[in-house]
Amino acid sequence: MFERYEAGEQAVLVHITFSDDNKKEDLDELKLLVSSAGANALETITGSRKSPHARFFVGTGKAQEIADAVKTLGADVVIFNHALSPAQQRNLEALCECLVLDRTALILDIFAQRARTYEGKLQVELAQLRHLSTRLIRGWTHLERQKGGIGLRGPGETQLETDRRLLRARISTIKDRLAKVEKQRDQGRRARQRNEVPTISLVGYTNAGKSTLFNKITGAGVYVADQLFATLDPTLRKIDVTDVGNCILADTVGFIRHLPHDLVAAFKATLQETREATLLLHVIDCSDENYRANIDAVQGVLDEIDAGEIPQLIIMNKIDAVDDIPPHIDFDDQGNPARVWLSAQTGVGIELLFESLMALLSGHIRSLKLALPPEQGKLRAIFHQLECIEHESYAQNGDCILEIRLNNTDWQRLLKQQGTLIEEYIVSTN
């Protein structure tokens, strides 16, 4: 449905510096985005303004400079490191006589290339359609259908109106399909919640090393590349944490500054894994000079999807790229792990991550002493299967004295299976 430019096109990049911090973008990040999209940057045109120009976003002189560069270099596309209004995009395309894309369209293009699953493709198409719906123009005047005469009478609407109607219908269809996918995800999520299985979600700025860490922990073999948005479709794997038991680890799409709202809205089903997580592992590339700004950008997206209040463990990744930083854990004022310094690439410090997960997720570990009568041999066998018995002895009356230590998830599951039977045999709790 979309005439998306193919990889390998020649591009002229435009980056404007504004005094307003909210409008500032990173030029190096634009180059990474363009590289991830597969385009070749021929030239970068920079400038500075107090505010965007109403007609061309840049001034008329700078707009002519861009148009001249396009003609001189034979560029196929102009890519702005900013969000353009539909009118600004049309005016620039008319002046440059080539395709003009803004930052949002560039990110959408990368997502379209990366989508692999049925759900991911639907989400990308929905975001593209929402973006396109504001950019429909009167390009079909030769098919105007409101005129009279033989061969010109039609349904009483212009081609532009027809396009908008078809667009609305397609958006509605995609929303219905995504609702079914979200319903399936909810069923799996509710099943995990019923079993009280903790969910750990990896979040962080794009290219921070989330998928590399995910592979190191799970051995999943998720696609990893040194490029922005290498991961688009979420992946779930089961991991075992000491004193906690089975947990679900989720690898999610990376965030970026000024992530398009259309994408946030379209990917709500995917980001639901983040919203419903027990713990967020916020992965940070500590070798990136802008990592503090990246943290703020990620936190902004988390707040936008109502996940800002979920407990976080900061993962300072890529210490192998920084001198004199050994793997270690930083603790907060309550003595809980707050940051883990490690390298997902080399595996250094991974054991510290598991140590921190155990400390944060095993807050409900139960230590119990039970006296089981001889006829409760089946119950004793269950505790042996759970491998939670620390000491076993027998009383003079034949009762089996068990000192057990197990996580709250397994304990609650046992209570549901055995009713209040177990509680009758509890001698003491710690």
Explain what the structure shows.
- The structure is a single chain.
- By secondary structure, the chain is an alpha/beta fold.
- It is 39% helix and 21% strand.
- The protein has 13 helices and 15 strands.
- Strands 6-7-5-8-9-11-10 form a seven-stranded mixed beta sheet, sandwiched between helices.
- The longest helix is centred in the middle third of the chain and has 36 residues.
- The chain is elongated.
- The N terminus is likely disordered.
Attribute tags:
single chain; 430 residues; 4-stranded parallel β-sheet; 13 helices
The count of β-strands is: 15
Looking at the structure, what is the overall shape?
elongated
The class by helix and strand makeup works out as: alpha/beta
Uncertain regions spanning at least 5 consecutive residues: 1-7, 138-149
How many whole angstroms does the radius of gyration measure? 28 Å
**Helix percent band:** 25-40%
**Major beta-sheet overview:** 7 strands, mixed
Q: Strand percentage, roughly?
A: 15-25%
What are the secondary-structure elements, in order, as H or E?
EHEHEHEHHHEHEEHHEHEEEHEHEEHE
What is the strand arrangement across the widest sheet? 6-7-5-8-9-11-10
Mean pLDDT: 80
